[in-house]
Specification:
The complex is a heterodimer of chains A (about 500) and B (about 220).
Chain A (H helix, E strand, L loop, with lengths): L3 H49 L1 E4 L2 E4 L11 E6 L4 E4 L8 H4 L11 E6 L5 E9 L2 E2 L22 E8 L1 H48 L20 H47 L5 H33 L7 E4 H15 L6 E5 L5 E4 L1 H18 L5 E8 L4 E8 L32 H11 L2 E8 L3 E8 L16
Parallel strand pairs in A: 1-7, 10-12
Antiparallel strand pairs in A: 1-2, 3-4, 3-8, 5-6, 6-8, 9-11, 12-13, 13-15, 14-15
Helix pairs in contact in A: 1-3, 4-5, 5-8, 6-7, 7-8
Chain B lengths: L1 E5 L3 H13 L3 E5 L2 H10 L4 E5 L7 H10 L6 E5 L4 H9 L4 E4 L4 H15 L6 E4 L2 E4 L4 E4 L2 E3 L3 H12 L4 E2 L1 H8 L9 H15 L7 E4 L3 E4 L5
Parallel strand pairs in B: 1-2, 1-3, 3-4, 4-5
Antiparallel strand pairs in B: 6-7, 7-8, 8-9, 10-12, 11-12
Classes of the chains: A alpha+beta (about 500), B alpha/beta (about 220).
Chain lengths: ~500, ~220
């Protein structure tokens, strides 16, 4: 049942029915008790009449049927102290002998009610009574006022059992139960009909909230659902929803910013390409001019390609669509090759290099991605370092693998920049518009790649002078047999 | 007319500079914000083509500083930022026009021309002084309906004088508006080109339009009746 309204309705109807059933059971109990009490009363009255019909005469007890309504819907049996039946009702049913056995001698002097069965097996209410029958005394004259006291003879006690069947009570109770069932069913239907609009009132705030939420879209993520207007029970939901919208808005803002950054980084080289080609096509040129134009365009295209590849790599990293091709490589050799490669691309700088590494470190890793990490970190050191700086490269073994540190004198990096250095498109010089190799993606890519290679990248500024990039790889050294040929990549 | 191009991205800088030079403008170049500010505040430019994202100082910072220094040269902002807020920021900072990358060189030149005309309060691209007509778009000159063939330098000189027709313009002023910083020629060359211009404009019996004001400079105006 997915509808809150239906749930509320079902709960309300269930409660109503439950209450009705409880009330009905209570009524039935009261009715039953009343009927039993009424039956007891009838039994008592009948018993009282029957006791008057017994007479003690000459050591014998006799029952006088005169005045006894034979059509009385009660069964009785009277037994003397010897167990001899003195009288019993004349109906088809009698008190079950099982009931009488054992109780005949145990009838109290005070009347007692008990439940038992009749000879046809039906349940009955039975009054047990022991009494001294009436003694007939002869008076000698009309004026004889002398009192006569018959001595109490325990042998004269009569045990009287008067039974009234439960049939009538059961019939009434059965009828009452059916009526109660019908009333309950009718009340349930009525409750459903009446409670339907009431439940509508209950869920109205939910509908109002739904309408308010429906107005939210990606263009209105600065708006929030008003918590003050919603019911207290819904407030936690709305608060969570508002928090979710805040996170969503931030995600959209990040995406928007990333898209703007990508567009910005692509536009500048694209504009250069368009302008260069337009200028070449604006009039007839020499072959040498066209040759220069082609060279220039190829250079711009290479920048664009680098940028696009970086964006695509980030996209694949985000999507987790990177497959690892682990091979045993010499990390030191790879570092040196990467350094030479990066140095050739930064011909305007002339740094000195301080190598502090083992001769060789064999690790099993994806060479393409590790090389990309080294290239990005080294390019970063050259781009943001002083032109005639010293770049230090340190490699040492750690407990879990290897640590690679690249240290350079920083130019323009402040402590405030450190936490943002791994952000995409973050550039130290906000005004810088260099494209391709320096779009603010290098450290972001390196960070994600190192994480993927089971390591971590930390960046720190030491004494506001030295910028230290530390790569910790949790990759143990591989011991390779001498003479084995290693892939160099 | 002299234009300053401040752009750090070499392919754009080279293409814009070359294109403007081919259209007869004298073009100076700066590669970062600091250099651009120095050039714009020391040179006398008819238009500044200024990139927004520059090393050292942003285009906006350069622009703000130029306006603080009361340098009124029209500024055309070049930027990859195309959001409405960015355009508003650029124009509010004192830019006269805004061009989003990637752009067409033709559009850039048209905007530069418009800015220069606006700077000299000449709304019509065709400037007419007496019987002289100068088409700033087609770069063509005619007198009494007959075309006058001019070199790029002569055209630039005539355009500058017609833009400021009725005003006395000093030799230095003319020189600074027609020659690039790197040009080693002196202001005397202005006299030579004025002589060339007069000769070409007066061919066919036209009245003199460019008059010398001794010790002051030259003025282009309609001959008095």
């Amino acid at each position: 049942m997915n509808s809150i309204r239906l749930r509320v309705l079902a709960a309300a109807v269930a409660v109503t029915v439950g209450m009705l059933v409880l009330a009905g059971i209570s009524q039935l109990t009261l009715l039953y008790d009343g009927l039993v009490r009424q039956l007891d009363q009838r039994l008592m009255t009948a018993a009282s009449g029957l006791t008057q019909a017994f007479e003690r005469h000459e050591q014998r007890t006799e029952f006088e049927w005169e005045g006894i309504d034979e059509g009385l819907p009660l069964e009785f049996v009277a037994i003397d102290s010897q167990g001899i039946v003195l009288a019993e009702s004349q109906g088809k049913r009698q008190i079950a002998p099982d009931f009488l056995e054992g109780r005949a001698c145990d009838v109290p002097s005070v009347s007692r009610m008990s439940n038992g069965t009749l000879s046809d097996g039906s349940a009955a209410r039975i009054l047990l009574l022991r009494f001294q029958p009436h003694v007939e005394v002869e008076r000698h004259s009309e004026h004889d006022t002398s009192t006569f006291s018959e001595p109490i003879d325990p042998e004269a006690d009569v045990r009287l059992f008067v039974a009234g069947s439960f049939d009538d009570i059961n019939a009434v109770m059965q009828l009452a139960k059916w009526r109660l069932a019908w009333v309950t069913m009718l009340a349930s239907g009525l409750a459903a009909v009446i409670l339907w609009p009431v439940t509508g009132f209950v869920v109205r705030p939910i509908n109002r909230m739904a309408q308010q939420i429906a107005t939210l879209d990606v263009h209105r993520l600065d708006e929030r659902v008003d918590v003050s207007e919603c019911p207290r029970e819904l407030q936690p939901v709305i608060l969570r929803l508002n928090e979710f919208i805040t996170r969503l808005a931030k995600a959209f803002e990040r995406e928007k910013q990333t898209t703007a950054n990508i567009a910005h980084e692509l536009r500048t080289p694209l504009s250069g390409l368009v302008a260069t080609l337009e200028l070449a096509a604006s009039r007839s040129r020499t072959a040498q001019y066209y040759q220069q134009t082609i060279t220039s365009c190829r250079h711009i295209s290479a920048e664009l390609q680098t940028l696009v590849e970086q964006i695509l790599l980030l996209s694949r990293l985000d999507a987790g669509h990177i497959s690892m091709n682990r091979q045993v490589v010499d990390a030191i050799r790879m570092l040196k090759e990467s350094w030479n490669e990066v140095l050739s691309q930064h011909s305007d700088t002339s740094p000195s290099i301080d190598w502090n590494t083992p001769e060789s470190v064999q690790i099993e890793v994806d060479p393409t991605y590790l090389r990309q990490v080294f290239r990005n970190l080294l390019a970063n050191a050259l781009t943001h370092g002083e032109p005639s700086q010293s770049v230090g490269i340190f490699v040492e073994k750690t407990q879990s693998g290897y640590m690679v540190q690249i240290v350079n004198t920083c130019a323009g990096i402040t402590k405030d920049d450190i936490p943002r250095l791994k952000e995409r498109f973050f550039q130290i010089d906000n005004n810088r518009a260099n494209t391709g190799q320096n779009a603010g993606l290098g450290l972001a890519i390196a960070d994600q790649l190192v994480t993927m290679l089971d390591g971590n990248l930390s960046l720190e500024l030491v004494n506001n002078v030295q910028f230290v990039a530390t790569v910790r790889l949790n990759i143990p050294e591989v011991h390779v047999a001498t003479g084995c040929c290693l892939p160099s990549n | 007319m002299k234009i300053l191009v401040v752009e750090d991205y070499a392919p754009i800088r080279n293409a814009v500079t070359e294109s403007l030079r081919e259209s007869g403008y004298a073009v100076d170049v700066a590669v970062d914000g600091e250099g651009g500010l120095w050039a714009a505040s020391t040179g006398n430019y008819d238009c500044v083509v200024l990139d927004w994202m520059l090393p050292k100082q942003s285009g906006l910072q350069v622009l703000a500083r130029l306006r603080e220094l009361s340098i009124a040269a029209p500024v055309l902002m070049l930027t990859a930022k195309d959001a409405t807020e960015d355009r508003i920021t650029g124009l509010d900072s004192g830019a006269d026009d805004y061009l989003v990358k990637p752009f067409s060189l033709g559009e850039l030149q048209a905007r530069v021309r418009a800015l220069i005309r606006r700077h000299y309060v000449a709304k019509n691209p065709k400037i007419v002084v007496a019987d002289l007509e100068l088409d700033t778009v087609a770069k063509q000159v005619s007198r009494r309906g007959r075309p006058v063939e001019l070199s790029a330098r002569e055209y630039a000189l005539l355009e500058y004088l017609t833009m400021r027709s009725g005003e006395v313009v000093s030799r230095t002023d003319i020189w600074t508006h027609l020659y690039e910083m790197s040009d080693e020629s002196t202001s005397n060359v202005v006299d030579v080109y004025v002589g060339y211009l007069r000769r070409k404009l007066e061919t066919g019996g036209g009245a003199r339009l460019i008059h010398t004001r001794r010790g002051l400079g030259y003025v282009l105006e309609a001959p008095s009746e």
